[in-house]
Design a protein that fits this description.
By secondary structure, the chain is an alpha/beta fold. The chain has five helices and five strands. A five-stranded mixed sheet has the order 1-5-4-3-2, with helices on both faces.
Length: about 110
């Protein structure tokens, strides 16, 4: 599944458009940065409520191309700037992480 397909299927507020043609390999959900550093795979979408600049640093480290903020979280200006610099897609949803995961699963993102 490509990032653009997620955009077309979910009602997201887009803050940074990275490479929308990039394929997603799976997903990870978590707010503890050390947990995400341990379990995230390259090409994952990351669902989190963390909205500070360190999120982008972890995404770069783990080669995560898409950060999705859940529960109506608004990214800090520093996070937006860093994602733009790194080419990381950044979007937000009013939905909580659980229903977002369900919708992504229904779309075929099952790993």
């Amino acid at each position: 599944m490509k990032i653009s397909e997620v955009f077309r299927s979910l009602d997201l507020e887009i803050h940074v458009e990275g490479d929308l043609g990039r394929a997603l390999s799976g997903g990870v959900v978590g707010d503890l940065l050390s947990f995400v550093m341990k379990v995230a795979g390259e090409g994952n979408i990351w669902i989190t409520v963390q909205n500070h600049v360190n999120v982008a640093a972890v995404a770069v480290l783990k080669e995560i191309p898409f950060i999705l903020l859940a529960s109506g979280r608004v990214p800090s200006p520093e996070l937006v700037d860093r994602c733009r610099q790194e080419g990381i897609t950044l979007a937000a949803s009013a939905l909580d992480a659980y229903p977002l995961c369900g919708k992504l699963y229904e779309l075929g993102l099952k790993d």
